[in-house]
Amino acid sequence: MKHRYLKNVVTLQLDEDKCTGCGICIDVCPHGVLEMNMKKVRIIDRDACMECGACAKNCSFSAISVNSGVGCAYALIRGALTNSEPSCGCSSDGSGGSCC
Ligand code: SF4
Ligand code: SF4
User: Global pTM?
Assistant: First the structure.
């Protein structure tokens, strides 16, 4: 099940003019927030964004910005509450990278 966060507080910003349509941000987004439309990315589910920052980190054209960290804090709290390994899904692209 996709996690939902507080509505309309996500800091995710997209500058379509800078987007080249390379699609990397879509590949690394763990929550299906982004979609390709007419060779440009668009935000289709803003409230599902966990602000992991994977899209912004992987965009070579600075087309996406987000204040990352909130999603990781959520993951840490959730991990503590459920006595499980904290995971926000930010490394699900297989790169081994992680923001928390
Ligand atoms: S990574 Fe950047 S340039 Fe590539 S599709 Fe996403 S926003 Fe556009
Ligand atoms: S910050 Fe993370 S969850 Fe939000 S759009 Fe970017 S990759 Fe997806």
Answer: 0.71
